[in-house]
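Subject: two folds for Thursday's group meeting

Dear M.,

Sorry for the delay on this. The cluster queue was jammed most of the week, so I only got both jobs back this morning. I'm pasting them in the order they finished. Each block is the input sequence followed by the predicted structure tokens. Could you check whether the formatting survives your parser before we put anything on slides? The first protein is the one we discussed after the seminar.
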Amino acid sequence: MEKNEKVLSFKSYFESIARTKKVWVWLIGLVNQKKWRGLMWWRYGTILFTMAVELAEPGVVGIIIQDIATGRTDRLIYLFSAIVVLEIVGRVARWKSTIAHEWIWSINTESFAVGMTKRFFEKSQSQHKEESDLNHESLDKTRDKAQDLMTGKSTDMFETICLMVMALVYLTFLSLTAGIAMFVIAVIHIMWSAYNNWRAEVVCEEIDNDFRALNRYLAARWQNVERVTTSAKREREIRIIAERSREICGRDRAFWLWENGSSTLREGITSLWVITVFALMVHGVILSGGKEAGLLFPIWIWTSAIRGNLWRFGWLEREIRKHMPRIRATMSVLEKPTHVSDSPTATDLVPNGGVKLAFERITHSYPKGEPVLRDVSFEVGKGEIVALVGPSGSGKSTLEALAMRFMDPDSGRIVVNGQDLREIKVDSWMRAVGFIPQHSQILDGTVRDNLLYGLHEEELAGKDWEAELQNLLAKLRIDFGKRPVGENPLDIVVGRDGVKLSGGQAQRLMIGAAVLKKPRFMIIDEATSSLDSTTEKAVLLGLDELLKGVGTLVIAHRLSTVRRANKIVVLSGGKIESVANSFRELHDQSPTFRRMADDQDLEIE
């Protein structure tokens, strides 16, 4: 608690306001368009008008009471007509406001989805792996909070402020003393609420972080219950979870007990203040002989409106503050410059023909780490199959990422048909490359949807793909076991992340999708690890036939999968240890290859 007390200062409070302002500016930038701005002005204008109309009604009612008390009845019909008119006008204005609200909600929904997705897609794949907040779960939570802020909480806050200001203006018009008294308590209440909310943000940030860590711990144990059970750790895990939960909940409870006590005291003082102001007004009416007794009704309504909305103002400020850390974290990562982008002089890859890929003196390291690649040079010729092998951590995956241009090397260059890869537009290179990742990336939808995903509109238009897809299924052994008679396998729904497929089925589906692009160059990362040996052999034969003449870089962990390679490059410690055209040559030249071959009981022919 001592650390948090040091943070609680006027300077840090205003720094927090500045950070919050940046978030609002960023969110407005995502949705800022002419129609949206017009709708926001209309929405806030109608809210302001509605509040003025609704708060005017108690004043008219007060005049009616006053007239009845004094025996004046000549203008009652006009006063009642005024109430009816105010009610109708207020309802129409609120209706118009809700129409604007629905339009704003739609624009915000579309703008947040498009704006965040655009920034998300712009980031390099290396950033997607490095940044903890650059993932679909974080974006989904941020989008929901942003929508709530921009469509809900901001409007609620404006309406609350309008109610308080209007009520204060009307009250001051009737009684300057009452207006000044309510203004004083409003300032005190708002400052008190601001302090409590700021304290909640500071104190609870650490508590929230601890709760999230506990939730991750729980999720890991629930998802891996088999390991917990087979390690005889059930009782230990329950004890740890109980201790951590008790400690975090204790700190959370202590703070909120303090906050509830402070809020109760604040609300009690405000209520007593309002009652006192009203009592003094009643006393004044009594002293005047009760001539203005009717005005007590609007005074009570307006003072109560100020009191109620002071509480609402504090609650809304707290809710807005709760949303800020999540949005601020996402904003920070989405606005970072991408690691990989097209240079001003970048051009499209020359269309058609094969691709020759050369690594020239590549050196690369990750932040705060030693180089994982050191002066690596080799090439993959047109139509050539080159395999990269080596122990874990030797740099195979880094070379794959560099070849895909998920990142750029620290030094050296990658050359495609004589052109530096950095001078080729990223999208142009992606359209030329087929990529089969080690871990399948299946999209929700049908088998057909996933196979055709890599093709572009002009490739899909005007062509019946059915026969080619069925042929692909047969060549790559993409089958789905038993299914209803007559069901087209291409129409099978695979589920989110391919949940309805086995690991082998998902891998074959990814292979089929990559092949269907008719790539000019192929990068394969252990694409058959989930297949049995018989199916693997058939799939590899199918791949050889379908990719005939296509240059291929294969990242291999199992040596048996690369016997057909024209060239094998052995990496060790980020350097090339050996390059050969056969297992026999490598076995004679490379200690690393011999160890791997012995570990895998590989037969050297």
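Second protein, same layout:
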Amino acid sequence: GYQAFRALCKHVVVNVFFRQVDVVGAPRIPGSGAVIFVANHNNQFVDPMMLIALIDRVVRFLTAAKSMRRPLVGAFARAARAIGVERPQDLAKKCAGSVSCHAGSTSLRGTGTAFLRDLHVGARVKAGDVEMAVKSIESDTLCAISAAPADLSDAAYKVLPFVDQTEMYDQVHAALRDGDCIGIFPEGGSHDQAMLLDLKPGVAVMALGAMQAGARSVQIVPCGLNYFDPYRFRSRVIVEFGEPFEVPRALVGEYGSNKRKAVQELMTMVDDAMKGVMPGAADWDELQAFLTMRALYKPRTKTLSPEETLKLNKMFALARRRLTDDGRMKGLLAEVREYSDLLRAAGLRDRDVRLSLVNETRLAWRTCSAALQLVFLAPLTVPMLLWATPVAWVTSSLAKREKRQALANSTVKVKALDVVASYKILVGIVFIPLYNLALAIVGTAFFRGGFAAFLGVYFLAVPVVIYVGIRACDVSVRAWRRCRATLLFRGCSVTAGILQQLLVERRKRLQAKVREFVQEVAPMVAEDAEEEQMLQARQITRDLDLLAEEGALAPGGGGLTDPLLNK
């Protein structure tokens, strides 16, 4: 059932794959009543598993019906009490012939087409990135469409059928009437961009529709999923739960008479709330620059809390937006990027430089201590690495294959890193138990043990050894980083001279500038934060236009993501 799946997510997926999971704002989660959790979607399968593991309530995610029909993923989705959504893109069909039209035209002409057979009113014709709703069908080669957004000339096309989502909406409304929780990723699909993509209005349609159908009140909780190297095993994530807000009762009344306006107003509230839990970087490179600036600002002896980490990220992003024309901000970002380029050219990370910035005596002590840790933990880490090598090869190979397919089929992914971690975890869930089973059989046979010995090895010895090995590897990785930094900066005169001049001194100078900049602009940014939130532009009209073209807001309301398989 759900609790068994939640235990799998928490103890196997989250606690094993991630080294550190920090939660900010957990007390803000309502303990009862109807709640819709809205989150950014930066990690294909991991995002819903992460939220299910961290939220101490039953959260029913919307999942593509296509995924529900797959054996393994479907079993997980049913255990999680997911609500199936039949998506038009999963039912898309390539059609014979080609189509042509001019931008702004409401007529679509075909060559060698069979519109009377292949199209129906309400369906959508898609040619490349151009998509249009079918209004009426005149003949096999002519149909009326919504205004074409671009020119088409003898373009191949496919048809996305109209799907009646009444049953899905009824399930969502019933769940919210009963005071349950719904989870949704309103960006629509997973991606690896730093910024929040335009939100689909499905969440507003669900909330307003549920209250119109009898739910006493619905609260919306924004969730920010902030991954650090999400595709790497034993990486870190910070999850922030924002302030919940109730869907205004006045919008429910307005929804009955003016659906478009009510949805627009509620989506503005959702948009603002989600931007409040996001870093706010314009792109991936800018996000990396903010992370470097945060590392430069942090005092060596201080460990930032998750709240402080997120606050600094948001402060840098807000400062960049508010000080667009300020030469200091531009110059500082340019210097940080130049420093990052030097690190990449040297094959280093900022932490390698930071670890070298101690006096010789302390550096020698820390290096000796780290070397001793590596030696004493070797009996645990070496077998663990031998065990993990086949696992890493299988999961990485399949994840890379899926990454190539995701890049080929998506227009919003940068490097498709959002699918890498997800597929590593999914493959691992299947491969590791089978791999351990084979090892347990071989080990039991080698030592001539019986069935009881096999059960002890498989269910007790192997899990304990893996857990201890993972913890030992965590410590060993940190120890190796200290030794590596010493070897790079003190190991050879040529390397030490070049790196110390170009990196160590550059870091000291840049660190002073970052700290001075933070002290100067932080008060100003704090005062402007509320105004910034009020002035942010909202881009939701595109999806509302598509829904209005179909004659209603509820059917095919968008935002119905596949939290387990959506690319």
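Two things I noticed about the second structure. Residues 527-544, 549-567 have pLDDT under 50 and may be disordered. Residues 217 and 486 are 59 Å apart (CA to CA).

Cheers,
T.
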